[in-house]
Amino acid sequence: MKIYTKTGDAGETGLWGGLRVPKDAARVDAYGTVDECNAAIGVARAALAAAPAGNLDALLAAIQDQLFVVGADLATPDEAAYIPRVDDTAIQQLEQTIDAAEAELEQLRQFILPGGTLAAAQLHLARTICRRAERCVVALARDEEINPQVGIFLNRLSDCLFVLARTANARAGVPDVPWNNPRQQPAP
């Protein structure tokens, strides 16, 4: 099988189930942005390889696997039984990951900027892409029926990526980068 099929040369792509849609359709934009988030997490994992941070790589690998489920869910508008769907279990796993990671972090007392270690910065980038994917899913849901768990999962995932970015910094002994609010009054 060749990697190129030429079926998309006219600006259309196929959804699972065979339906052809324009490549700029809201559904394609949504699962394409999920794929972009997944790729950004892959870059963060590569950065972690240079400075291992405990179980973060395994957690991120599991998240990447689940993002394939999210993409398949979005790419399959019909009720195909052979497609895995996002469910409450996936959302609960993210919540457990967030709770466990937050338990080892200092309480956040101010806004922080994306940065610190390379892995943390990459996780912050993945978080912003995840937020964009969530916005795409919200727009898609206005016009088409989708699994409502997808939007909830992406909302929780962006929170999880934020906490994991902080965890990557903490485990590397690098502080989060505080935002220096120009309107904040200095302490007396």
From TrEMBL:
Keyword Transferase included in the entry's annotation? yes
- Give the chief site where it resides: cytoplasm
Database matches in Pfam families: Cob_adeno_trans
The name this protein goes by in its record: Corrinoid adenosyltransferase
Q: What is its EC number?
A: 2.5.1.17
Look at the named UniProt entry and state the broad enzyme category this protein falls under.
transferase
Q: Which organism is it from?
A: Kouleothrix aurantiaca
State any GO CC term: cytoplasm
- Catalytic reactions of this protein: 2 cob(II)yrinate a,c diamide + reduced [electron-transfer flavoprotein] + 2 ATP = 2 adenosylcob(III)yrinate a,c-diamide + 2 triphosphate + oxidized [electron-transfer flavoprotein] + 3 H(+); 2 cob(II)alamin + reduced [electron-transfer flavoprotein] + 2 ATP = 2 adenosylcob(III)alamin + 2 triphosphate + oxidized [electron-transfer flavoprotein] + 3 H(+)
Task: Please indicate if the UniProt record lists Methyltransferase as a keyword.
Answer: no
